[in-house]
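Action item from last meeting closed. Structure (85 res):
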């Protein structure tokens, strides 16, 4: 998070499940990633920003994407560093 510029965006995209799981693959659903971020961001001190993932259907599965926009965090990097543990 601290590597993002002031207007930087972290874009994450994944499939909810794969036809054949790869060794070590962890697939999260759209609802799971939303729940993870709802718990994770406040722990970093980001309390006023709660982005929701997008979800759409592919031919054989669903996919989701998440965009985290640094300009909406409303915390300094020093706060993120302090709360990183």
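Sequence:
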């Amino acid at each position: 998070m601290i590597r993002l510029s002031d207007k930087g965006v972290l874009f994450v995209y994944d499939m909810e499940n794969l036809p054949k799981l790869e060794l070590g693959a962890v697939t999260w659903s759209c609802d799971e990633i939303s729940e993870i971020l709802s718990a994770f961001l406040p722990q970093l001190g980001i309390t006023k920003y709660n982005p929701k993932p997008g979800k759409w259907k592919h031919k054989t599965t669903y996919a989701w994407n998440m965009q985290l926009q640094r300009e909406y965090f409303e915390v300094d990097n020093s706060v993120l560093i302090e709360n990183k543990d």
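Note appended to the action item: Helices lie at 30-43, 77-82.
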